[in-house]
From TrEMBL, chain A:
<dbReference type="Pfam" id="PF10206">
    <property type="entry name" value="WRW"/>
</dbReference>
<keyword id="KW-0406">Ion transport</keyword>
<dbReference type="GO" id="GO:0046933">
    <property type="term" value="F:proton-transporting ATP synthase activity, rotational mechanism"/>
</dbReference>
<keyword id="KW-1133">Transmembrane helix</keyword>
<keyword id="KW-0066">ATP synthesis</keyword>
<dbReference type="GO" id="GO:0045259">
    <property type="term" value="C:proton-transporting ATP synthase complex"/>
</dbReference>
<keyword id="KW-0812">Transmembrane</keyword>
<keyword id="KW-0138">CF(0)</keyword>
<keyword id="KW-0472">Membrane</keyword>
Automatic annotation (TrEMBL), chain B:
<keyword id="KW-0375">Hydrogen ion transport</keyword>
<keyword id="KW-0999">Mitochondrion inner membrane</keyword>
<dbReference type="InterPro" id="IPR008688">
    <property type="entry name" value="ATP_synth_Bsub_B/MI25"/>
</dbReference>
<dbReference type="GO" id="GO:0005743">
    <property type="term" value="C:mitochondrial inner membrane"/>
</dbReference>
<keyword id="KW-0472">Membrane</keyword>
<dbReference type="GO" id="GO:0045259">
    <property type="term" value="C:proton-transporting ATP synthase complex"/>
</dbReference>
<comment type="subunit">
    <text>F-type ATPases have 2 components, CF(1) - the catalytic core - and CF(0) - the membrane proton channel. CF(1) and CF(0) have multiple subunits.</text>
</comment>
<keyword id="KW-0406">Ion transport</keyword>
<keyword id="KW-0138">CF(0)</keyword>
Amino acid sequence: GPLSERRLMDVRLGELPAWLATCNFSPQGLLAGAQKAWNSYYDKYINVKRGGPAGISMLLAGYCLLSYGWNYQHIKCHRWRKYH
Amino acid sequence: MLSAPLVPLAPAALRSLPPPAAVGILHATRPLHTTQQCLAPLPPLPEKGGEVRYGLIPEEFFQFLYPKTGVTGPYMLGTGLLLYFLSKEIYVINHETVAAACILSIIIYGVKKFGSNVAAFADKLNEEKVATALAVKNEAIKDLETAIEQEKKEQWRVEGRSYLFDAKRNNIAMLLETNYRERLLTVYNEVKKRLDYQVAMQNLKRQKEQDHMIQWVEKNVIQSITPQQQKESIAKCILDLKALSKSAQAAV
């Protein structure tokens, strides 16, 4: 279909800048995009009859990674070696 | 999936109309009656969530790498990334690593041991909710069905109206007949009484005349019997009695 209506996963690598150009980067647009992303994740992994640990474990793993990234400058001071 | 059964429901004329932008005061952001979305009944929830391997990595990632690298591709990628992060100390091993390892092992042990129990319990809760809702629905359906049957019975009863009115008409006819016959009998009785009266009158008159005449004749006869004739008749009777007694003695 047309470029603006495709999901990110269906966009080929070469078309990525064009796809980014069609995106709506206003606050409402970003909020709508975030809402859509959360809804698709929720409907796929959490809002099912028989879910498993996967739904929240992926959220927790993502949170761990994010917090590691936010504290990276502080953790860098506790390295074991100076030269890698 | 849902749109197929709804297609024949939307009339063809409405489907061919262009979607209205704004209908008067109603600011509808989506056109009315031209989409085939329907909010009820909702589609049922999917049975299982998306496939996830090791609880962390979605299956789509493995499928994404399969054509180029086969089955071991993602594992090689993971190992390589891990070694790279460790050797370059992008991931620093400190006390938090030990804490994370302990916590993760406990979590995994807990999930492996109690996962199925918790799942069964949650399933039971869901089952109960669904069962109560289903019971309410079935109850409502049963009530409506009994109401339908009673309605049909009432309709059948209405058909018997004509029989009811026929019976009533028969009753009324019988009442009229009875009344007519009673009056007929009354008339007959009255006429008979009058006729009996006339007959009794005639009989009485004749009897009175008869009695009167007999009395008059007796009175005159008694008056005409002179004393002389009385003596002669008495002597004659005595002579007759003597003769009879003689004949009677002779017979004995």
